[in-house]
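Box S1 | Example of a co-folding query
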Amino acid sequence: MSDTLTSPLPLAGGVGGGNALAANTDFAGKGLPSPSPSSKREGSKGDFPGLAGDWAYLDTAATAQKPQAVIDAIARAYGPDYATVHRGVYERSATMTLRFEEARARVAAFIGAASPYEIVFTRGATEGINLVAQSWGQRLQPGDRILLSALEHHSNIVPWQLLRDRTGIEIDVAPLTDDGRIDEAALVAMIGPRTRLVAIAHVSNVLGSVVDIATIAAAAHAQGALLLVDGCQAAPRLALDMQALGADFYVFSGHKLYGPTGIGVLWGRAELLASMPPWQGGGAMIETVSFLSTTYAPPPQRFEAGTPHIAGAIGLAAAIDYVEGIGLAAIHAHETTLVAAAREALGRINSVRLFGPADSAGILSFAIEGVHPHDIGTILDESGVAIRAGHHCAQPLMAVLGVPATARASFGIYNDLSDVERLAAGIARVTRIFGVEA
Ligand SMILES: Cc1ncc(COP(=O)(O)O)c(C=O)c1O
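Box S1 (continued) | Returned holo structure for pyridoxal-5'-phosphate
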């Protein structure tokens, strides 16, 4: 697949008054917004075996392709390095334990956690939210309230509904602005004396809109509430610093961060995790067990019952190395340019409706009047362009947008402007096939 810009889209104007495509943003080394001096150039399509062939992969918000470095790290973990962790007295197991715990420390450094003890390995963001709902949620009383927003992924809605069914809490939902952001002023005004938790997405998986976490954390804390952030779409594209953000819980999934599936992270403030009961019982999470009583290990082990996803944690650390080798600031700038170019190209097609704010992070949802998003996805697939079509696990948001589904193009570190060109050409073909306005 070519990663050069041989035939730039004929765009006029551009986002912010310039031609978005005039800014060459190819990560393979042609005009990438300068990474920090310490970072090296990575992110070219050649690093990703999953991108081989003539394929424009625009579904990174669903799951990211894996660089060879991550695949190699997983293969080593399951191959010559393989052994269990925490229990073995032999050297291989001790070494593996070190590598597993190094991975925890790597995650802690990546997100600016105060210590590796604040990092709980989970299966993913979904499990992290369920963990908080089932463990921390046990302290809630009937009449306590949890505040969500209208753009949340189902994984940040349903666990709270299950908790509501068990405890009698109430769920409030903050509205969105017309351009598809969480209405921060409205959300802050909805935090009341019975609000125990605000739980929101840092970056919307449908609209790409970014919320100001620090402001909301301050407002929640002023009312004695905590803040849980679903960072699934933020971790792969925004530099994170738990100290600066001021949240209390933060979750994300490894597979959207160019790492393995089946591994994710729950970060929680140390004192908060220490105050929470276990949510699953089994090996590795105990201090002592008898048939009369059991005592529990301190966090994070308290929340990691059973043999952990050893290779997953090691693969995640390799993914973090890869991503940091490029630099989050450079990744964010790169994806912002690609989204701007896509907005501009698709915005010129009369029957296309774009969703979300102009400065959305890495993600662009759209619809074509008179064409079902599944048809858009199928026709694009014929041209080797992979997008997502559906409700994106955000049915309440679809209701707000007034559509059953959207088409969604999402970008990653390996995409370039040739992918935007192919998307625009594919959409033009859709309009021709369906005879709608071009
Ligand atoms: C914003 C957001 N939250 C949560 C999730 C759930 O992530 P996972 O399925 O990896 O647990 C996703 C995945 O699409 C997401 O985009």
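Confidence is low (pLDDT under 50) at residues 1-42. The domain at 72-324 is CATH 3.40.640.10 (Aspartate Aminotransferase; domain 2).
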